[in-house]
Design brief:
CATH topology of the largest domain: UDP N-Acetylglucosamine Acyltransferase, domain 1
Distance between the termini: 30 Å
Shape: globular
Number of domains: 2
Low-confidence stretches: none
CATH superfamily of the largest domain: Hexapeptide repeat proteins
Mean pLDDT: 97
Bound molecules: coenzyme A, zinc ion
Largest sheet: 10 strands, mixed
Structural class: mainly beta
Length: 203
């Protein structure tokens, strides 16, 4: 079984970290965070207690992943991407806000990124959204709503900006069908939902 590589200057407090994962200098993975196998956690990332990272994820430098955030397998998180888990944050020292922070469930709002999706550099993901499988969030986007599988979103606030193949190339639909010009995979769309084509053989 492959070993975990932890750079001597990384701070890794969790024991839940899968074989083949590498954690680079100045990354901090807290106790209680879960990181799967064969991940790459680059310098200056922060992964908080309660965050869950699947297998084969790439988390580029300086990304911030908090409690309540789940990344499924093979998710890419770009440099400086920021997740959030509190939609209406206040200082816990503020007397008016104390009741809100008495129970975790009262303020913590969860976010899930489905398998194969990518988050662009410096994107901000607001709490409570689901980023669908193989979706792509543009660099610098602020995501306030869920993104469908294979969807591309861009801007502030992020808006739908097209569709993307599992390989990462843009997809153009003709009616409710598309074939990727880069890898040949076929897709179909039913009631606005995109999926791999069942009718046509896929490479
Ligand atoms: C601004 C904020 C408080 C608004 O919350 P809200 O009232 O529940 O807002 P809604 O989700 O109903 O969104 C209202 C509109 O504003 C937009 N919007 C919300 N937050 C936005 C943001 N940060 N940037 C740009 N647009 C934003 C939404 O897209 C929506 O517009 P639309 O209907 O045209 O898409 C919240 O979205 C936010 O940014 N909270 C801060 C979270 C944070 O930074 N936490 C840090 C600690 S984890
Ligand atoms: Zn493709």
């Amino acid at each position: 079984m492959k070993k975990v590589f932890i750079h001597p200057k990384a701070l890794v407090e969790t024991r839940s970290i899968g074989p083949g994962t590498k954690v680079w200098a100045f990354a901090h993975v807290m106790d209680g965070a879960k990181v799967g196998s064969r991940c790459n956690v680059c310098g200056h990332c922060f992964i908080e207690s309660g965050a869950e990272v699947g297998d084969d994820c790439i988390i580029k430098n300086g990304a911030l992943i908090w409690d309540g955030v789940t990344l499924e397998d093979a998710v890419f998180v770009g440099p400086g991407a920021v997740f959030t888990n509190d939609p209406r944050p206040r200082s816990r020292g503020l007397p008016e806000a104390a009741p809100r922070y008495a129970r975790r469930e009262a303020w913590l709002v969860r976010t899930t990124v489905r398998a194969g999706a990518s988050i662009g550099a410096a994107a901000v993901i607001l709490p409570g959204v689901e980023i669908g499988a193989f979706a792509m969030v543009a660099a610098g986007a602020v995501v306030t709503r869920s993104v469908p599988p294979f969807g591309v979103v861009a801007g502030v606030p992020a808006r739908p900006a097209g569709w993307v193949c599992a390989c990462g190339s843009g997809l153009r639909f003709s009616g409710d069908r598309a074939r990727c010009s880069a890898c040949g995979k076929a897709y179909e769309r039913h009631s606005g939902k995109v999926s791999f084509s069942k009718a046509r053989r896929n490479p």
